[in-house]
Amino acid sequence: MSPSEEAAKLSGLIAGLRAQIDKTTEAGELAAVPREDVTQLATEAIKLYAAYVEELETDLPPIDSSISTTEAMVMACALLRAQRMNPFDLALWFQRGAPKSQ
């Protein structure tokens, strides 16, 4: 497959996955999803997001606004803990992406 075919295939898979996540959540069947699957999905999504930003040297738009503050903070705290970081470390990295004042 060509690179554009690979990208189209990934986009299709993501669309299907999003739909299935919504159906599973709405059906109240999250407990039946293996914990490891959720962790691996989050890990790969984060890697994709970071690789996109780094490879294309661009900022992506903010994460979808349908994410609640609680959901955002749950993920942010999980990421900080996974890297053994603290809020001070986050502040240093947060400045990295801040727009430069003119």
Explain the layout of strands and helices.
Layout: H1 3-26, H2 35-56, H3 69-82, H4 87-96
Keywords:
single chain, 0% strand, mainly alpha, 102 residues
Written description of the protein model:
Helices cover 69% and strands 0% of the residues. The chain is globular and about 40 Å long. The protein contains 4 helices and no strands. The protein has a domain at 1-33. The model has no long low-confidence stretch (mean pLDDT 87). It is an all-alpha fold and 102 residues long.
Compute the number of strand runs.
0
Largest sheet: none
Would you tell me the structural class of the helices and strands? mainly alpha
Helix residue percentage: 55-70%
Number of helices: 4
Bulk shape: globular
* Through-space gap between termini: 45 Å
Q: Give the low-pLDDT segments.
A: none
Mean pLDDT: 87
Q: Can you write the helix and strand succession as a string?
A: HHHH
As a percent range, the share of strand residues is: under 5%
Task: Offer a quick outline of the entry.
This protein is mainly α and 102 residues long. The chain is built from four helices and no strands.
